[in-house]
Design a protein that fits this description.
CATH architecture of the largest domain in chain B: 3-Layer(bba) Sandwich
Shape of chain B: globular
Largest sheet of chain A: 7 strands, mixed
Helix content of chain B: 25-40%
Largest sheet of chain B: 8 strands, mixed
CATH topology of the largest domain in chain A: FAD/NAD(P)-binding domain
CATH class of the largest domain in chain A: Alpha Beta
Strand content of chain A: 35-45%
Oligomer: heterodimer
CATH class of the largest domain in chain B: Alpha Beta
CATH topology of the largest domain in chain B: FAD/NAD(P)-binding domain
Helix content of chain A: 10-25%
Number of strands of chain B: 23
CATH architecture of the largest domain in chain A: 3-Layer(bba) Sandwich
CATH superfamily of the largest domain in chain A: FAD/NAD(P)-binding domain
Number of domains of chain A: 3
Number of helices of chain A: 9
Number of strands of chain A: 28
Number of domains of chain B: 3
CATH superfamily of the largest domain in chain B: FAD/NAD(P)-binding domain
Largest interface: A-B, 54 and 56 residues
Radius of gyration of chain A: 22 Å
Chain lengths: 420, 480
């Protein structure tokens, strides 16, 4: 069995950035396993621009952004296997994988970085009644068909869910000559970035109906129409508000789910809120030597933050390989409270921290002119006003290593929203 | 002229085709959809009922018990997934006990083996997720689960290998009686047959009524279901039915042969013969009733919901046999539950009648066995390694959720009566049947179908007919 210092599962933005930073931290034997036929992951089908503003201070398309990291991987001669599916990861870090060239094989890794990304929530999980014809796509599948295969999924479109891919696809389908009639969103707020609502819906005159959902799908072979209805505060459809739309296509952009089947097989503890691993400041999971980053850990809005997070995972895995992550200290847990749905990380070991630790989180509702506060046990140590916070936009606070080291008895750090 | 024309390639039609091919190759199966297993046979509980339910002495009871006894051997002969997991009929109220006793007696009268009534403690020991309110249950050790697609497709493929011709996308429009048999009129032209078998599911009444003065009437009885993610784990080990009683007619909670949990069905009589749309009320009813048996049922982990139609004839009994005023015309009508369970016995019975009618003798060249698509997940590490080495296509995973490889999908497309649509591939290999429901593998399966069949990518359908996956290529402009 071949042994590697670090095996990275997934060659998308997270896996690539993790590989580069691990190599720059001096790790020799690294291998990236990618299931698709090229590196870059989902970025390859994201041909719109807006990527890289934070990382490169310029506006790149998805493939351009990916190419920057792919070039870095190639410059460093980091090996990777394409078309390679990982079938199993064990808790003692043996990986079973398969491809056409090497067949079925096993590898052993001193550290593993999980970077498998996420998948879209399908129609079945949304519990929409009606028929099951052709023409119902998750937005990302439609994006692949249009951008990679040159195929047009439909001409008259309704989109359910205002996630970013759905918004992007509203514009994309319009540009391809389709008529996008409406984007319906179950929640009273959008699930996507404000900038996407402006640039993809408003600029094209596509209405966004908040607090609306699809209550029926019609058509036996191909979608012929759907029914929208308004929902009440319990998200239940309100009788009498039904509106029929004629369409041949329903696109779904109703949330992304971190793809953690392999993490589960390795025994990694998962958060019920993020559906991703529970990690510490080093992005190490509950299984020693197994790290997670990117959308498999929690779903991000911006790839720039994925790259940052993955680079941190790469550095931490490098330390682990060198035996430098063994501080033996107890962790301080982070508590998400008062509208903060979760934090990544969920615990920190101060001695293992870098000088500054970014803590990312999402809020559970829209907040205006509220404060993000951080408490060290009972003591509030920071309070920052935010004009607007919404579930569709990831938030962050920064912890300083020296602050934590100066409080050796600190047990819990609480991140909470406080209204004015 | 064919010896036999069978109308319908569902589980009944396929069973008859396979059984009758023991005696003759001169058999044509006409199917209005693009594939077999597209109607009632594809959307049901996937259960092999033991046979305690049907009235004693009925044809339904006899064929159910016989079919259930044949199924395990057939699953080995034709290589489709089957598991005898046992079933229980749960009694949730003391006052319903007499009904349970009655069910036991009926089962014994029908010849079902091993039946006994078990008490709360034993039920909860064997099925910890069952509601603690359970009082008693009928324990049915011969209850089993099956892959309905696997059963239907295996019988059809085996029939095809034995010389039966299948013609898809063909709708029967009428019949003319002749001296030697029947002319079957279809939207694709006429065919001649010495015998006709009407296995047309919810449409069997229309076909029957075209040739007979003695009318029958079939009501499509819709059943809504939920299917849960494998990740929910095996919530129950046996198939759990609810005793009809205080809480009305119940729903079942059962494992499937592939490790999902299935929950349903409702029973809603409808008018339209093709309406398999689920409704909010139906799905909510399933959720409510399932929670009576298994309060912790994690319906949030549903990966799909669907509806199937049972072909309920007014008499509530299978109608099988030669139509008295239409010699040579054989009905296989009113095949509602337990139709799937009975199908091997239905095939045997109808083939026997035709054999007698036409004076046929057994063929010496009949091939009784069929090898299914290899499922690499059932192989050992070494066996799987050898398989990929021999055919590297088994090393490329196409469906991530169900780990289905290119090798399996290509086999599904290229074998006899191969798949031509995404649903066809799905029913044969499970590609697209997992938690992402084809979101990832859909475009890749389309590519494989296009490559293997030579059809343009933009022509690939979900399930034949007008169910094209895409409306064209980009940059083509809109239609004039």
């Amino acid at each position: 069995m071949n042994t590697y210092d670090i095996v990275i599962i997934g060659g998308g933005p997270a896996g690539l950035a993790a590989a580069v930073s691990a190599r720059d931290a001096g790790v020799e034997r690294i291998l990236i396993l990618e299931r698709d036929n090229e590196l870059g992951g989902i970025l390859n089908q994201c041909i719109h621009n807006g990527f890289g503003l934070h990382t490169f201070q310029e506006e790149l398309t998805g493939p351009e952004y990916a190419a920057r990291f792919i070039d870095q991987v190639k410059e460093r001669q980091i090996p990777y296997l394409l078309n390679t599916m990982v079938l199993d990861v064990s808790s003692d870090r043996v990986i079973t994988a398969m491809n056409k060239t090497d067949g079925l094989f096993q590898l052993s890794a001193r550290a593993i970085i999980l970077a498998m990304g996420c998948r879209e929530r399908p129609r079945g999980a949304l519990n929409i009644p009606g028929t099951r014809p052709a023409g119902i796509y998750s937005a990302g599948t439609a994006q692949r068909l249009v951008n990679m295969e040159g195929l047009l999924p439909g001409r008259k479109v309704v989109i359910l869910g205002s996630g970013d891919i759905g918004l992007i696809m509203a514009r994309r389908m319009t540009l391809e000559g389709a008529q996008v009639q409406v984007v319906a969103e179950l929640m009273p707020y959008s699930g996507g970035l404000k900038r996407n609502i402006v640039q993809c819906l408003d600029d094209y005159g596509i209405p966004l109906k908040l607090s609306h959902t699809v209550v029926d799908i019609r058509g036996r072979e191909r979608v012929e129409g759907i029914t929208l209805a308004a929902v009440d505060e319990h998200l239940k459809p309100i009788p009498g508000t039904e509106e029929d739309y004629e369409c041949d296509t329903l696109l779904l952009s109703c949330g992304l789910i971190p793809e953690n089947e392999l993490s589960r097989s390795a025994g990694v503890a998962l958060s019920p809120v993020t559906s991703g691993a529970v990690v510490d400041e080093s992005l190490e999971t509950s299984v020693p030597g197994v790290f997670a980053c990117g959308n498999v850990l929690h779903v991000h809005d911006l790839v720039d933050f994925v790259s940052q997070e993955a680079a941190a995972a790469g550095r931490a895995a490098a330390k682990y390989v060198r035996g430098e992550l063994e501080t033996g200290e107890a962790a301080i847990s982070l508590k998400a409270q008062g509208g903060v749905r979760y934090t990544v990380p969920a615990r920190v070991h101060p001695h293992r921290m870098e000088a500054e630790q970014v803590v990312r989180f999402r809020v559970g509702a829209v907040y205006r002119n509220a404060y993000v506060s951080v408490y060290f046990d009972e003591e509030r140590v920071s309070r920052r006003k935010r004009q607007i916070m919404a579930p569709g936009e990831m938030e962050q606070v920064v912890l300083k290593r020296e602050d934590l080291l100066s409080r050796p008895d600190l047990k819990t750090i609480t991140v909470t929203i406080e209204e004015a | 002229m064919y010896d036999v024309v069978i109308i319908g390639a569902g589980v009944s039609g396929a069973a008859v085709a396979r059984e009758v091919s023991r005696y003759t190759k001169s058999v044509l199966v006409l199917e209005r959809f693009e594939d077999m297993c597209c109607g009632t046979s594809k959307a049901n509980s996937a259960i092999v009922h033991a046979g305690y339910d049907a009235p004693a002495g009925s044809l339904m009871a006899r064929l159910n018990v016989r079919g259930s006894r044949m199924m395990e051997a057939l699953s080995k002969e034709l290589d489709f997934p089957y598991r005898r997991n046992g079933s229980m009929v749960l009694c949730m109220a003391e006052e319903d006990r007499p009904h349970l006793q009655k069910l036991l007696e009926r089962g014994v009268a029908n010849g079902v083996e091993g039946l006994r009534i078990i008490e709360r403690q034993e039920i909860l020991r064997r099925e910890p997720n069952v509601s603690p309110d359970v009082v008693a249950a009928l324990d049915v050790p011969t209850g089993a689960i099956v892959c309905p697609f696997g059963l239907n497709i295996a019988m059809a493929e085996n029939a095809a290998v034995n010389g039966v011709t299948f013609q898809f996308d063909t709708t029967v429009t009428g019949f003319t009686a002749g001296a030697e048999g029947w002319t079957v009129h279809t939207d694709k032209g006429d065919v001649e047959a010495r015998c006709v078998v009407n296995a047309a599911g919810v449409y069997a009444d229309r076909l029957h009524n075209m040739v007979s003065a003695s009318k029958i009437h079939i009501t499509p009885r819709r059943g809504d279901y939920y299917l849960l993610d494998k990740a929910a784990g095996e919530m129950v080990h046996s198939t759990l039915f609810q005793l009809p009683g205080k809480f009305g007619k119940g729903v079942l909670v059962s494992p499937t042969v592939h490790g999902n949990t299935i929950v349903g069905p409702t029973a809603i009589d409808i008018e339209e013969k093709d309406n398999t749309a689920t409704t909010r009320e139906g799905l909510d009813q399933v959720a409510r009733k399932a929670a009576v048996s298994v309060p912790s049922i994690p319906l949030r982990q549903a990966i799909t919901s669907f509806a199937g139609l049972r072909a309920h004839e007014d008499g509530g009994e299978f109608i099988i046999g030669e139509v008295s005023d239409a010699p040579g015309f054989f009905d296989c009508a009113g095949i509602e539950s337990p139709g799937l369970s009975s199908s091997p016995a239905i095939g045997e019975m109808v083939a026997g009648l035709i054999r007698e009618k036409l004076g046929l003798s057994p063929r010496s060249d009949f091939v009784p066995t069929r090898k299914g698509i290899v499922n690499p997940q059932t192989l050992s590490f070494e066996e799987r390694q050898a398989l990929v080495k021999e055919n590297p296509a088994y090393g490329r995973v196409i469906c991530r959720c169900e780990t289905v490889t290119e090798g399996e999908i290509v086999d599904a497309i290229t074998r006899p009566l191969g798949a031509r649509s995404l649903d066809g591939v799905k029913r044969r290999t499970r590609a697209g049947m997992g938690r992402c429901q084809g979101g990832f593998c859909g475009p890749r399966v389309m590519e494989l179908i296009a490559r293997e069949t030579g059809v343009d990518l933009s022509e690939i359908t979900k399930c034949g007919g007008k169910s094209r996956m895409v409306v064209g290529k980009t940059k083509e402009g809109t239609e004039a």
